[in-house]
Specification:
The chain contains three helices and no strands. It is mainly α.
């Protein structure tokens, strides 16, 4: 039986309509809710905190690169530590924003299962 490669306009329109409908239904699911954003951001916050704290502990709070002349990648390690703490601070701000949005949503009566952006 040969494979039919002929696609009609009705088939394309039906597929596009079904995709658009399923996308709109997915926007109301738990995956896109305030609670799921808070969970994912908390996990991200926790990983940034643990990783950056471990690096900071390993480096002893930072390296003085001028006192260690033959230490390879000294400046890069200090930069990695600094950017790690910056990312932890930014994820903390994001977590606070999601908490504020969740609080407003709960006061409005939508709960934490509602959409992040209304």
């Amino acid at each position: 039986m040969p494979f039919d490669t002929h696609v009609t306009t009705d088939m394309v329109t039906t597929q596009a309509t079904q995709s658009g409908t399923s996308f709109m239904q997915a926007a109301g699911s738990f995956l896109f809710s305030i609670a799921s954003h808070a969970v994912y951001l908390f996990l991200t916050w926790l990983f940034w905190l643990a990783g950056t704290a471990a690096l900071t502990h390993t480096l002893g709070g930072g390296l003085d690169c001028s006192s260690i002349p033959d230490f390879a990648h000294c400046n890069q390690l200090n930069s990695a530590m600094a950017f790690g703490w910056i990312m932890w601070i930014l994820s903390t701000f994001a977590l606070v924003v999601v908490g504020v949005i969740g609080g407003r949503s709960a006061r409005r009566g939508d709960g934490f299962g509602g959409a992040l952006i209304v």
